[in-house]
Design brief:
By secondary structure, this protein is of the alpha/beta class. The protein has one domain: Rossmann fold. 38% of the residues lie in helices and 22% in strands. Strands 2-1-3-4-5 form a 5-stranded parallel beta sheet, with helices on both faces. The longest helix has 13 residues.
């Protein structure tokens, strides 16, 4: 059974690349969202196993979205992503309830699998 993934990122070109990459590796991408609010709605409706979540979104940051997802009825694993390195966010990544962090440039099926296993 493949993991069901929701991708939340405000850059359509990155979403398209990530969807292709994940699907080619056997992940089931069940939806995409362009900001935090639509990501929360999509997560509630689609009930993914994993949410790949950009930290820098136009309406709220990924840390806030993560906490809302983790406190919901169906709490998916959250993997934070960003074009910046984790160190650029200080302790916020380590202190979040996200499963982990992957820099966008490092996103691959292997890096995602390593965090989820």
């Amino acid at each position: 059974m493949s993991l069901r993934v929701l991708l939340v990122d405000d850059h359509p070109s990155f979403r398209a690349i990530a969807v292709r990459l994940l699907r080619s590796a056997g992940y089931e991408v069940v939806g995409e969202a362009h900001d935090g609010r639509s990501g929360l709605v999509a997560a509630a409706e689609l009930r993914p196993d994993v949410v790949l979540l950009d930290i820098r979104l136009p309406d709220m940051d990924g840390f806030e979205v993560t906490e809302r997802l983790r406190n919901g009825d169906h709490a998916p694993d959250v993997v934070l992503i960003s074009s910046r390195e984790a160190e650029g966010y200080g302790q916020r990544v380590a202190e979040s309830t996200a499963r982990g962090f992957i820099a966008k440039a490092e996103l691959s099926a292997e890096t995602l699998a390593a965090l989820l296993n």
